[in-house]
Amino acid sequence: MSNALGQTIHAPGGALRRSAAERAANWLGDRGTLVTGVALAAIVVLFSLIGPYLYTASPYAIHGHHALEAPSAAFPLGTDQIGRDELARLIAGGYATLIVSIPAAVLTFLLGITYGLAAALSPSWFDKVLMRVLDAILALPGLVVLIFFSALFTPGTFELILLLGLTSWPGLARIVRNEAIAQRNRDFILATRQFGGGTWYIARAHILRVMAPILVVNATFLVGDSVLALSGLSFLGLGLQPPYTSWGGLLQTGLNLIALDPWWMILPAGLMIFLSIMAANLIGQGLLARFGAAR
């Protein structure tokens, strides 16, 4: 009798605890990817943008007596082959990487949306012309195009933003065009036309609003793609030029000295590139899962 009474008394509390635990597990399962991505992005951004104010050593100062020195109290990430502080250079490289990659992703985003909407909302013959042009651009290998134009001139920050932005938009343009075509004959779009809504009003007020989840997800992926493309160019010596550097340039410098085993010149830069790309992809996947669940 007492056992039954005890079960009767304690069961509701246990059920409530189990229910709370299940809700917490579901919450973490749904948001874990997104939260992890945001946390990694915060680490990368704070390191690159706040780092120069916390670690004030110059990335350009040469300490001739400490060339190629392993990490120590004086140089937390060691020095390069001419004695420059690797931690200061890693922070400066992160700043340079972000101020190129993020604006380049924004430019890619705007160009892709504009081109895709222009194709979807134009007369069918013009849509076909734009799509054939897009097919021709997509047929070109992106890295080869980047290398070709980078080799024509010495790119600075502004030139790299333009180069990355002007060569990365076709994939997004195709996504936007296909989604806009799928939306343009829906009832509320046709009703808006009947009430006198213009093409670009419909695009701005209705189509873009419906496509917002897709656009947000792709915007996060574009940032990761820009970081990867810039790192690849810098690794090949076609990105930011000395004395400025980026993570790809630091990685290339370290690998040139691989016979001397300067792991402190290779691992930190490679890790920051990896974390940046991972953060962008996790945020994108998390947002995709959240928007998919909302539907």
Automatic annotation (TrEMBL):
SUPFAM superfamilies: MetI-like. It holds the Pfam family BPD_transp_1. GO terms for cellular component: plasma membrane. InterPro entries: BP-dependent_transpt_permease, MetI-like, MetI-like_sf. GO terms for biological process: peptide transport; protein transport; transmembrane transport. Residues 94-284 form the ABC transmembrane type-1 domain. It is found in: Cell membrane. The keyword Metal-binding does not apply. PROSITE patterns: ABC_TM1 (PS50928). The keyword Transport applies. The chain crosses the membrane at residues 33-55, 95-121, 133-154, 160-176, 214-238, 263-289. It is a multi-pass membrane protein. Keywords: Cell membrane, Membrane, Peptide transport, Protein transport, Transmembrane, Transmembrane helix, Transport. Gene3D superfamilies: MetI-like (1.10.3720.10). PANTHER family: D,D-DIPEPTIDE TRANSPORT SYSTEM PERMEASE PROTEIN DDPC-RELATED, OLIGOPEPTIDE TRANSPORT SYSTEM PERMEASE PROTEIN APPC. Belongs to the binding-protein-dependent transport system permease family. This is Peptide/nickel transport system permease protein.
